[in-house]
Write a structure and sequence with these properties.
By secondary structure, this protein is mainly α. Helix content is about 40%, strand content about 0%. The chain has one domain: Eukaryotic RPB6 RNA polymerase subunit, CATH 3.90.940. The protein starts with 10 loop residues before the first helix and ends in a 9-residue tail after the last helix.
């Protein structure tokens, strides 16, 4: 098996991205490489390994909103007994 591409942070992510791309190919998307008679999963893995597939972590999580009461309060020191 070939090494994962340097842009992937784990083998698991490589497999997930390739699986998603293989589904796209099976549903009719054109391969970005010469597919020949190879299976969609092998084509998708080669595309991922050659950094031909765009992927990301998705949108960043929303930031918590500060309320006026919590922003105005100063943190109290912990009591020591």
């Amino acid at each position: 098996m070939e090494e994962k591409s340097p842009t992937m942070d784990s083998k698991f992510r490589r497999v997930l991205v390739a699986a998603t791309r293989a589904e796209q190919i099976m549903r009719g998307a054109r391969p970005k490489i010469e597919a020949g008679k190879r299976k969609p999963t092998r084509v998708a893995l080669e595309e991922v390994d050659n950094s031909m597939v765009e992927w990301g972590y998705g949108p960043p999580p929303p930031k918590p909103e500060e309320t006026e009461a919590s922003a105005a309060e100063e943190p109290q020191p912990a009591e020591v007994h």
